[in-house]
Amino acid sequence: MADDGERITLLRFVERFALVLREAGMAPMPARVLAYALADDADAYTAGDLARGLGVSPAAISGAVRYLVQVGFFAREREPGTRSDLYVLDDRDLWSRFMSAELHSLRRFGETVAEGVAALGADRPGGRRLAETCDFMTFLHAELSDAVRRWPAERDRLAAGRSPVAPAG
Fold first, then answer.
1. 105, 111 contact by CB (below 8 A)
2. Is pTM, for the whole model, over 0.90?
3. What are phi and psi of 44, to 5 degrees?
């Protein structure tokens, strides 16, 4: 960041985006760390870098980066001769990878609901609700699967129409 004004702008965005991530179910600190790593220009961070960037203690960062590594947003690396882990935002197809993992959960959700329909029957109010839930989950899974499959071509199309970002310096 070049100056305090840009830093404040970055942090305001981080807090707004982190709030959206939290409303979608992500815990507060992983949401803040992810939003910061997405918007900041660095490629890799130590826990200390993230703590300084967000103005929090390094202890607050450890659980957040552990979660972000587990779900595949960050990769953990280590530079030779250092004692600190580096957390690298693995931004290769970040959101399509994330959605692919969510699709697995969505499929399991649908399968479990289908078992409920089979066990309880669709001829009663609860069964009808479960059947509609199953139909919706099946539909949503198919639509999202198709969107994830189409994304690489759409990403390339959008990137071709965007002017390149000038390197910092």
1. no
2. no
3. -145, 150
